[in-house]
Structure formats: C-alpha cells, structure tokens
Design goal:
Monooxygenase; single chain; Helix Hairpins; 2 domains
C-alpha cells in the first residue's frame, strides 16, 4: 500500500484499501495497518523537519484510530452505520424490549452472586456463555449490514450489543477482583 496524502480524510476502510463491510479479513487489516505504520511512524521522521514530524504524528494518530475502529466488531458496526448516515440513537433511544432488559437483569444478578460468593469458576462460565452469545449476535449483525441490509434492525442490535459488551467488561473485572 502506498502512502498517499489524499487518503488522510478518507473513510477508515478506504484508508486500508478494504471494502466497507462488517465481515472483514482481520489478518489483511493487520498487514495493511503494519504497512502504513512502517511508512508513517514518527520514529522514521526523528531527524526530519518539525513540519514533517508533526505530519507523521497526525498520520500515525489517524491510522491508529481507524485501525482500532475497524478491529473491534462493535465499533466497526457503529462505524458502518455512521457511513450509511444511520444514527444508532445510543444516547437518545434507550428503549429496549422487556425480554432483553429482563435478560440483562438476570445476567447481572448472576455476576453479582458469583462475585459475592467468590466463585471464579462460575464467572468464567458466564464469560464463556456471553462470548458465545456475542458471536451469534455479531453474525446476525453481519447479515443485517452485509447480506441483506436492514439498517434499522442493525442499529437496534448494535444498541443491544453495547449493553452486552459492557456486561462482558463487568464479568472480566469481577474475575480480576477475585484474582487479587
């Protein structure tokens, strides 16, 4: 991949010369990220002019931000919806179906009980169960974004995933607290 100044304002996918899609080749993204970084990393410009060093730092920051967005499934889904000019309404649309909210309460109660009882094994079990659930939900989002686009349903599923990803962090924090 050639370093091109006009790409600075390109969308994240174009920056890495990738087709905009939820399903992407993670290894290819990694290779293109490393290729770009090898061209623009500030260490390569240590003896350059102040303007060139500043330009390199701006590029490195831009490439890192794009890479982090595309690397993570939830942020990639949000970004695709953003590119489609479809607001997920994460702050304004907090209404969730009752069954989803009940499920969230049950998950959180199970985490709290396992943490209070010091049951590391149960927290690991919850972690693995939630990871499997997340994979299934990400596959659903892939279909809604890549196969037969339904941006409204995709946005709804992304809002739900925001809850689940936060829950995964809570489980990981509970396990870490028990390890201390």
């Amino acid at each position: 991949m050639e370093f091109k100044a006009e790409q600075f304002n390109a969308d994240h996918f174009s920056l890495f010369d990738l087709h905009p899609a939820f399903r992407l080749d993670a290894a290819l993204l990694d290779r293109r990220y490393l290729d770009l970084q090898s061209q623009i990393h500030p260490d390569r410009f240590a003896s350059a002019t102040e303007a060139e060093r500043r330009h390199s730092l701006q590029w490195a920051t831009r490439v890192n931000e794009a890479y982090q967005t595309l690397k993570k499934p939830l942020s990639r889904a949000k970004y695709l919806l953003h590119l489609a000019a479809h607001d997920i309404g994460g702050e304004s649309n907090t209404l969730m179906p009752v069954d989803f909210l009940v499920e969230q309460m049950e998950w959180r109660e199970a985490v709290a009980e396992a943490r209070a009882a010091g049951e590391h094994h149960e927290l690991e079990h919850l972690h693995h169960r939630l990871k499997r659930d997340l994979l299934e939900r990400y596959e659903e989002i892939a279909g809604l974004l890549d196969d037969q686009p339904d941006l409204e349903r995709a946005a709804d599923r992304v809002r739900r995933l925001m809850f689940l990803e936060k829950l995964l962090v809570e489980i990981d924090e509970a396990m870490a607290a028990l390890d201390e």
